[in-house]
Amino acid sequence: KGDPKAGEQKAMMCVSCHGATGNVSVPLYPNLAGQHEEYLAHSLHAYKKGERSGGQAEVMKAYVSGLSDEDIDNLAAYYASQKP
Amino acid sequence: KGDPKAGEQKAMMCVSCHGATGNVSVPLYPNLAGQHEEYLAHSLHAYKKGERSGGQAEVMKAYVSGLSDEDIDNLAAYYASQKP
């Protein structure tokens, strides 16, 4: 299980597309707020492993490539703790 | 833009994993309620085109393969209209 406080620090790079609280203003992008931590971590690993393509997948892969497993857990914990 | 009423009919096959209102009980699966219609339609097309792998992607591809573009728009409109 991740640390939401540590995740909030790492989330600096996510906010331009996903919003500071994980609620997007661009309707083509997913809201992250209130998703379960497990699903959020799963998705980040999927991008990192190259299991997603099309859309913004290459952008996501670039962002996620520098994240450790712990960073991913922390980010997932942070966005899971936010209100939709 | 899709028709949420028509989408609700089609959603019969989605509810066992994603819940009747798009709020999941299985933490590894994504909530759909309150996502933007555009993102939901994008995701369904991504599964249909085989742009996602790993996790439940093969299951999703199988479900989505029988859906028309209109079905996808309707499903997206339905889940976008649900409350997180």
Keywords, separated by commas or semicolons:
homodimer, 84 residues, Cytochrome Bc1 Complex, Chain D, domain 2
Task: Give structural notes.
- Two copies of one chain form a homodimer.
- Chain A is an all-alpha fold.
- Chain A has one domain: Cytochrome Bc1 Complex, Chain D, domain 2, CATH 1.10.760.10.
- In chain A, 51% of the residues lie in helices and 0% in strands.
- Chain A has helices at residues 4-10, 15-18, 37-48, 57-64, 69-80.
- In chain A, α1 crosses α5 and α3 (37-48) crosses α5 (69-80).
- Chain A is globular.
- The interface between A and B is medium-sized, with 23 and 23 residues.
The portion of residues assigned to helices of chain A is 40-55%
Please identify which CATH superfamily of chain A we are dealing with.
Cytochrome c-like domain
Main β-sheet of chain A, in a few words?
none
Unreliable residue runs of chain A = none
Question: DSSP strand (E) fraction of chain A?
Answer: under 5%
CATH class of chain A: Mainly Alpha
Number of strands of chain A: 0
Give the CATH architecture of chain A.
Answer: Orthogonal Bundle
> Mean pLDDT of chain A, rounded to whole units?
96
Largest interface in this structure: A-B, 23 and 23 residues
Q: How many helices of chain A?
A: 5
Please identify the structural class of chain A as seen in this structure: mainly alpha
Query: Total domains of chain A, how many?
Result: 1
Molecular shape of chain A: globular
Please identify the oligomeric state.
homodimer
Order of helices and strands of chain A: HHHHH
Rg of chain A is 11 Å
* End-to-end distance of chain A: 21 Å
Instruction: State the CATH topology of chain A.
Output: Cytochrome Bc1 Complex, Chain D, domain 2
